[in-house]
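note to self: dont lose this again. the chain is below, predicted strucutre after it. 142 aa total, dont forget to put it in the shared folder this time
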Amino acid sequence: MEAIKAKKNIAVLVKHGVLSEKEVNSRYEINVHAYNTVVSLEGSCAATIARTQLIPAALEFQSQLSSVKSVAQKKLLKTVSGLIDKSLVACDALEASLAKHDSAKTVAGMLKLRESIDALEAVVPANTWPLPSYAEMLLMNA
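---
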């Protein structure tokens, strides 16, 4: 979006009668506002889905693993617990960036949250996971 505000780009648009400088600036402001609005909505949805559906599903699986005996099962429990912690920390950071209306940090926060949630999806059983997996979504269209 910053490219449209470059002097040489504005000059070309004005020279050829496409847009006036005022129109270019207006379109820039409108697009920035639209972008920030979409990022805020997506970030808010990501945090809500993580907190109300995905992390609780992982916590349910963690609870199922709490009485494990074998070394391998304890390792899985440790992995799930660590990913839950990472997800909670990422969710907190995402919500903090949303409160500050910082789109760049919100996008980074969504990516960080997605990393831990994707990792949880890979270990939480499908019957516990509340959303379709990527594989399920791909196969639905096949």
